[in-house]
Amino acid sequence: MSSPWSKVSAEPVQTANLADIMSEQYAHRLHDKELKEQQLRQEKQMQTVATPTPSYSNVVDTSASASSSDAGAWEDYSMLLNLEEAQQQKEPLPGDILTLLQDEAESDAVIAQMLQSQFDHEYNEELRRIERQQNKQSKVTVTLNKYLRSGDAEFLHDTEADEDYEEDELAHRKHDWDRFETNEKILDAIPKCGFKLDKEGEMITKHDPQLCGVRNAQRVMSFPPEFPTGDGACFDMKLSNKVFNQLKAYSRRGRADRKEKVATAEMGVDAATRLLLYKLINNQILEQINGIISTGKEAVILHANSDASYTGTNEHGHGNGVLMPAELLPKECAIKVFKTTLNEFKQRDRYIKDDYRFKDRFSKQNHRVIINMWAEKEMHNLMRMQSIGLNVPDVVVLKKHVLVMRFIGDNHNAAPKLKDARLSAAELSCAYEEIVAAMHKLYNEAKLVHADLSEYNILWYEGKCWFIDVAQSVEPEHPSGLEFLMRDCANIVQFFERRGLPNIYTKEQLFEFITALNAETHNAAMLERIHTRGASINQATVPNQLECPDELKPLEYPFELAWEKSQQEREAAAALRQLQLNDEEAKQEQADEQPEHTEEVKTKLNNDNTAKCVQ
Ligand code: ADP
Ligand code: MG
Q1: What three-state secondary structure class fits 287?
Q2: Compositional bias of type Polar residues: which residue ranges (predicted)?
Q3: Which of 349, 416, 598, 614 has the fewest CB atoms below 10 angstroms from its CB?
């Protein structure tokens, strides 16, 4: 009877415990076994001898034979790790495995070296960038060569090609800076007249767009480090004045803000003034404001550097109100900021408020307008004095109440005032002669009286006297002109007297020398006294008196004093008259009381008098 079931294999069923089945080793072993069986089957089928595919078991087998460690499918890793050891011990390794391992090791080393090389290259590039940034156009160059890493691009580029590349790059960079230098030379060679003919007879001006464009590109390279400009040297960059100015304004925004803050804190100028100062910087007239030279009751004097890049016009083609050609712009400037909150004005308010004549008309008016007038007056007076050849600071620009002029002094050191200058006897004498001549010239040619002339407002610089602080100067026709002149004369004479200079004028003589008027006749000394009692110099010399609001007009001191004086005179006259009257009355009374002379006595007295006359 045939059984429907095939014959049951007599082979005993292999038992395996669960832990074995679950183990990874066991799984590997089964897998390898299966592979082996499959391989054998294929071999049989193809009847050919084939190289077995590498498998864990191969490795395990070889490793088993090569090492004494326990056989395990994962021993290959340890074998890899022990490769070096194995090689050192010259233990035989099957050729294919060795090649494989060597290949892998070599490629790893190459990858590591390449990575290192790449890193070195990038590191060196960064160093070179920092180097370039630091050196810029500086004549002293800094090199960071000693920090360069040696493995740079060794494995990245073909060495020769790399050298060529670097040489090219250097040459290119040099060429770019040469381009800037050549450009600068051409511009420098243009004379003051502003143009020059080149070899071909073509006219080049200092405003040539090509030259200016390259120069602007060069300047952009020296912007502050926080302003990213890129490397404009490595291509033929040109920037128009307009673009350059905008970039420059942008690059300076932060810096100007910082300066502005310093100015507020340290220089005590108000927001409106700060804005004006900022505009002067922004318009490329000033480069920077350095600090205070002097703070007075009426003005703050600041020191500033002018902007060397000022070309005479801004991007809109305006001169920004600068009163001199760009090439004459002084390197160092003094900025006179007229204070907009004069105590004196406040005091004057009070004074005027209490004055019955101004009671109805008193109102608060814009003080700034008046202050601007003061600044303008100083500017006009300086220019007028300069036009007749007196030594005064050149006016650079006037913006409202801010007057920029030449700085009298060197390297941030202001020239000393005459009172502080150490003068030899000869220099003192020279200074005296110079001042007397200047006062004469000022009165007769410029038709001005300084009105605040003293050793405080004359600077001693390069062996000469320089006259400053002329906002209050007036024409001799001014109602107080002669009084001011007399006071100036008094100040000057007094100074030289104190210094012991012999043979000098008295103040009256000096007055007469200047005006050809006799001081006594014109009673200048008396007027001077009247002025001193009346208004201050500022009140009396306030500019543009017609437009000046009433509360800021000088007090009409002669009115009060004249009134006072006339009252006094009247009283004195009345008193005198009274005295005379009293005298007469007394005499009369005396006469009335005395008995009348007899006819005899009268005749006798007459005879006596006649006898005396004959004698
Ligand atoms: P203030 O009305 O306050 O007296 P000044 O015009 O006399 O103003 O200036 C005050 C001081 O500032 C002067 O005594 C002088 O030392 C200095 N100063 C003014 N102008 C200049 C200048 N152009 N160059 C150098 N120093 C100056
Ligand atoms: Mg002064």
Answers
A1: strand
A2: 48-62, 606-615
A3: 614
Please choose from 293, 379, 456 the residue to mutate so as to test ligand 1's pocket, defined by most ligand atoms within 8 A of CB: 293
Which range has the worst mean pLDDT, 365-374, 497-506, 562-571?
562-571
Rounded Cα distance between 375 and 380, Å, is: 9
Q: What is the pTM of this model?
A: 0.49
Place 349 in a pLDDT band, splitting at 50, 70 and 90: very low
As a whole number of angstroms, the distance between CA 225 and CA 289 comes to: 21
User: Is the model's pLDDT at 102 over the cut of 80?
Assistant: no
Which protein residues have their CB within 5 A of the ion that is ligand 2? 457, 469
pLDDT tens digits along 591-602: 776 655 545 545
- Which positions are annotated as active-site residues? 452
What gap in Å lies between CA 381 and CA 388, rounded to an integer? 11
What domains can be seen in the chain, in order of their start residue? 175-253 (no CATH), 269-414 (3.30.200.20), 415-531 (1.10.510.10)
Pocket test for ligand 1, best of 290, 408, 468 (most atoms within 8 A of CB): 468
- Which residue(s) pair with 300 in the sheet? 295, 337
As beta bridge partners, residue 341 has none
Q: How confident is the model over 530-541, as pLDDT tens digits?
A: 444 445 666 666
Question: Residue ranges of the alpha helices (H) in 72-135?
Answer: 75-81, 83-88, 95-135
pLDDT at 538: 66
Per-residue pLDDT tens over the stretch 303-342 = 999 998 888 876 666 677 899 988 899 999 999 999 876 4
Nearest atom in ligand 1 to 405's CA: 23
| Pairing label, strands 195-197, 402-406 | unpaired
Distance (angstroms) between ligand 1 centre and the Cα of 15 equals 114
The torsion angles phi and psi of 395, rounded to 5 degrees, stand at: -85, 130
Looking at residue 589, its pLDDT comes to: 80
Four-residue CA torsion sign, 82, 83, 85, 90: positive
How many helices and strands (H and E) does the chain possess? 19, 11
Phi, psi of 396, rounded to the nearest 5 degrees: -95, -55
Residues 428-479: pLDDT tens digits?
999 999 999 999 999 999 999 999 999 999 999 999 999 999 999 998 888 7
Name the E strands within 201-295. 203-205, 286-295
Query: Token match 């600090």: residue?
Result: 291
- Residues 6+ positions from 427 with CB-CB distance below 8 Å: 463
Residue 191 CB: number of other CB atoms within 10 A?
9
264: DSSP letter: I
